[in-house]
Design goal:
With 202 residues, the chain is of the alpha+beta class. It has helices spanning 3-27, 68-74, 102-122, 189-201; strands spanning 34-37, 40-43, 49-51, 54-57, 60-63, 129-131, 136-141, 144-149, 159-164, 179-182. The strands form two sheets. It has a five-stranded antiparallel sheet. A hairpin with a 5-residue loop joins strand 2 and strand 3 (49-51). Helix 1 crosses helix 2 (68-74), helix 1 packs across helix 3 (102-122) and helix 3 (102-122) packs across helix 4 (189-201). It is globular and about 55 Å long. The N and C termini lie far apart (39 Å).
Length: 202
């Protein structure tokens, strides 16, 4: 996968997560949490969701094209940023245009699905959340963040992470906030989460 296609698609999907899904949901009093769904991610009530390079809504399915404002309007929503909630979001304006590579969108959806499944197996009592701020799916257990990111400034490709609130030292911990491994180098994300927890418990 070409790095630029992945980065551009990831940014566009991040914008959809905030402006078209979480922002309007928050405006309706539903909070900002999103969830992983087959083929992508969606609102907690399941009414609006991204599947591949399409937005599925009660009013119908539309392609992820045009501006964020146009996309939201096509399904009866108003694009809404979450600047009043957090400061670390995608910083995308509603008049910007989306740019989606379908193959990159599928890869990112697979990363979220992999992360969601591993998190549910790792901590069955927790519900994974896809956060619109950093666009990752994660949980927190005993002051440790576990999750999967589709890539960011730290790593440009999908990766799993273990982020203790107080980062430890040692060979396993290869990031300023804890430990990361790209999904490409992991044969089992659950094993990575389990290894991190084991080191922290000892």
């Amino acid at each position: 996968m070409e790095e630029r296609s992945l980065a551009v698609t990831r940014r566009s999907l991040h914008g959809v997560a905030e402006l078209v899904l979480a922002g309007p949901q928050h405006g309706r009093g539903g909070g900002i949490r999103l969830r992983v769904v087959p083929g992508g991610f969606g609102t907690t009530d399941g009414d609006f969701r991204v599947e591949g390079d399409a937005l599925v809504a009660p009013a119908g399915t539309v392609r992820l094209t045009g501006t964020y404002a146009e996309l939201a309007a096509a399904v009866g929503l108003e694009a809404r940023p979450l600047d009043e909630v957090y400061s670390g979001g995608p910083m995308i304006a509603s008049h910007e245009h989306l740019e989606i590579d379908p193959a990159a969108a599928r890869l990112l959806a697979e990363a979220f699905a992999c992360g969601d499944a591993a998190l549910r197996a790792f901590a069955p009592g927790e519900t994974p959340v896809l956060w619109p701020e950093h666009f990752d799916v994660g949980i927190t257990v005993d002051e440790v963040n576990y999750g999967v990111s589709p890539g960011d400034d730290h790593l440009p490709e999908p990766y799993a992470y273990v982020g203790p609130w107080t980062p430890p030292t040692g060979a396993f911990w290869n990031a300023p906030f804890g430990a990361t491994r790209t999904l490409a180098e992991l044969s089992d994300v659950l094993e990575f989460f389990t290894a991190g927890r084991s080191l922290l418990d000892n």
